[in-house]
Amino acid sequence: MAELLYKKLVKQYRPDLPPALDRLDLNIRDGEFIALLGPSGCGKSTTLRMTAGLESISDGQIVIGGKVVNNTHPKDRGIGLAFENYALYPPLTVRDNLAFNLKAHGVKQAEIDKRVAEIAKYLHVEELLELKPAALSSGQKQRVNIARALIRRPAVLLLDEPLSHLDAALRVKMRTEIKRLHTEQRFTTIIVTHDQLEAMALADRIAVLNDGKLQQFDTPLQVFNHPANEFVAGFLGEPPMNIFAVKGDSNRRLVVPGTEFSLPITDFVGRLLGERKSVRLGARPWGIHVSQTPSEVSVPGTVSVVENLGDETRVGVRYGDMLLMASTDITRVYKPGSKVHLTFEDEDLNLFDEDTGERLTA
Amino acid sequence: MDRDTGILGLLGPILRNLILFLYALFALFPLIWMVILSFKPDEQMFTTTFIFTPTLDNFRAVLGEAGFVRSLWNNLVISGLAVALSLIVGVPAAYALGRYQFKGREDIAFTFLSFRFAPEILVIIPLYLIYQKLGLIDSVFGLIWVYQLISLPLLIWILRGFFEDISPDIEGAAQLDGYSWWQVFFKVLLPMVKPGIVAAALLCFIFCWNAFTFALQLGGASTQTSTVSMTRFLASDTVHYGWVAAAALLAALPEVILALLIQKHLVRGLSFGAVKG
Amino acid sequence: MASVELQGLTKFYHKRRGVENLSLDIHDKEFMAVFGPAGAGKTTTLNLIAGIVTPNSGTVKLGGRDIGGLEPADRNVAMVFESYALYPQFNVYDNMAFPLRSPKFKMPEDKIKERVTHHAKVMRIDHLLQRPIQALSNGQRQRTALGRALVRNPDVFLLDEPLSHLDAKLRHSMRAELKEMRTQLGTTTIYVTHDYLEAMSLGDRVAVLNQGHLLQLASPDDVYFRPASIDVAKFFGDPEVNIFDATLKTSGGSQISVQMLGENIPLALPPDVVQILNEKHTSKIQVGVRPPDVRIAPEGDKQAFHATIYSFEPLGTKSILTLKAVDGSFVRALVDGHLTFEIDRRTQFCIDPHLLIIFDGQSQKFLARSADSIENS
Hints:
The complex is a heterotrimer. Chain A has helices at residues 44-52, 94-104, 109-122, 138-150, 168-185, 196-202, 220-225, 230-235, 267-273; strands at residues 4-11, 21-28, 33-37, 59-64, 67-68, 79-82, 156-160, 189-193, 205-210, 213-218, 242-248, 253-255, 262-264, 278-283, 288-291, 299-308, 312-319, 322-329, 339-344, 349-352. By secondary structure, chain A is of the alpha+beta class. The model of chain A has no long low-confidence stretch (mean pLDDT 90). By secondary structure, chain C is α+β, with helices and mostly antiparallel strands.
């Protein structure tokens, strides 16, 4: 296991297009679990492929365990890559799939047997060793896939969307297993994913990418609670954050013109606002408190839609084009047409610059 | 893995283009030679240098001959009607093969395709005998009929793919929108496969236009097509290479124009998947 | 406006089962969510109602009338397909106008214009009317497809996974917006989905299908809180419901308590549950506990189960905590996102017996759940 550094890493496919990856700087510690998160085309897969050596590096450096690997052949980089579509060799048994790479490297049979047994135990595939890939379920295939990537004792384990082919229930189970595996083994791991829940659940730190640029690199809860900008705020969290434009009016209130929305500007918000007249406001559904009684700081509204989702009730209040969703614990008191009062706590309130999308900080 | 650097990096693309250029020259040479021949006077016909006095005599001679102009017209009529008949029969056939699950579907589709397997020369003698019995030798209808062997398989196989690409949901949607099956077919499906129909029809036309064996054996004086007519310039004693070249060039002209049209429709046909999102 | 009745519908595609002996009663103006995993027979059900496929046996009744012999065009049902099935050669306006130009529903062009513009406004696509379909986003296509189905006042509205092609974020907001629009539809609607949140949010009732069979037909609350079987319980809720083997202990006459997870901690069952269990004479049960109902207990709580923390996955507002109980089984808990937990540390958790869902150990069918559990909210 080793640390992994990206230094001003650039990938430029064509000179006339913006770079697919623009000066990525990341410092990944030994044993850390990192998620590269972003929508398709954000540069996360490019980064993974460059790390594995499947894609050339336009500029910058990749350093694994203190060694620059820009010109190192993929097989000598010490990378274990688990492909998205498993890529197991169909005619070979699970045992031979696992041993394949070691054989190619001339490892002795006794050593191979030992390592296969060891890795099979870690990944709970011992009873599958004599089966062919076709006989495995998709969850089992994914475990064999990861085992095969790990058996070479790589410096860095790369996981390319490992859960995207599994159904929802299995995905949650497999997520737990991968997380547990990492806690036990602590190998430096990079997961590439577009699923923010996966990134949040698994990673020690998340690197959020968009349009080839790093947006934020921090722990899941930091990224969730203190997003660097509107993109990060909107990308993470389910149900999604409510983000909409508001204007400051003369009564020290933030309003959505033409609607009931009118939020008193607290000292804290006032400091964030500075001289700005209009900003974009972001509030997570769980951060909005719904009440039947008004308070000095509440925003009036009329319930437009109520969703009963078992242990959770979501209340939607429409302000013009904006349907503001608030999540509450299970409740049956609100109906469409009910008058409600919404409270936004300072710490749950995000304000974004209208032009740059950056989150305003005091 | 390593990056292109220095002189090697620059040389790479140049070398690549040079190789491609040389190959293009090699592949196109017979065509270029034909164009050159058509502009050469008879006396310079057998020189292998590229220097000659260009002349239009060959074209004048070929166009001056009433038989050749007529054969061009014959070819146009016969090929055009052959494609039209293929469309009438082939479009519904392609739809059925593309949409319905029925017993022997793949066998039928394969049988259609197999019409293209056998060399024409192999079937020409039995066909000749049959045509003679039916009195179809040297008739426009006879040629149109036999041309179905050329155009129908092609048309069906191309259009089948197009129909398969249309989601059955679209048909369901249109039926629920209040249209009968026939209206759905003409109002919704046909416009959707139009690029395919145009491309397939043009390809069929080109194949029919170039057909030689059937036209030679089953045609006659009144139905001579341009491909057959050209052979008259290859007499047993003298061969007017210049005339042949000029005639071939003239006969190829409609195809070149059509091929340019095809290009556009083929691209449209291929970017067809936009419906699925 | 009409009710829909399906009676003993069976449809096989060669050997593959679409639906088998399916009976469903959908009331006039009801919004029925048909929920199930892939291959459950949901789309087959819609196609049978629409008349796009014909059943092997069984009848479809619309407003009390058997419509088995009718062509799709004559059934006056409108359908929104999963693939949207928009006509690529037309723009948005012509797509929406298409049904109104058909011989069946023909009306003058100025009337058509009025209708189309009205419904485009409802769907908030009025600024897109002249756009070709290819230039629309998935969300806009989906709304165009809804608009096309709406323009002609159908008797029944069939929706086939209309949100499945949208990304997760958009799905949440579109679901809420769809629910908001529901009141404006005012038409009998059958909504097919594999997303349990959609089924619960939108449906007046939910029909749970699996492998061509109906597992449960009930209100969203009932499906969630009183699932007909362990399978149904597993379909609804994320993370999945915890299922444990448990034994019943009778103590002090009418008292029945539950023991599980390898510990000697009797959970006294509420009287209404006891009554049902007594009536059914059940001895072997399985219990379901939803992850939000598993609560981390303070140290020293006598009623708490012991566990080690197997895995901790923060998801922002909430976190998933996987606990390993004394008997080695895993228990998932959904806890507040502000708490952090260290892997492999010991901890305790408790479960409110009122919240237990009790299943028969043999048939895995629903037996009982205390009525108090929902009423207290």
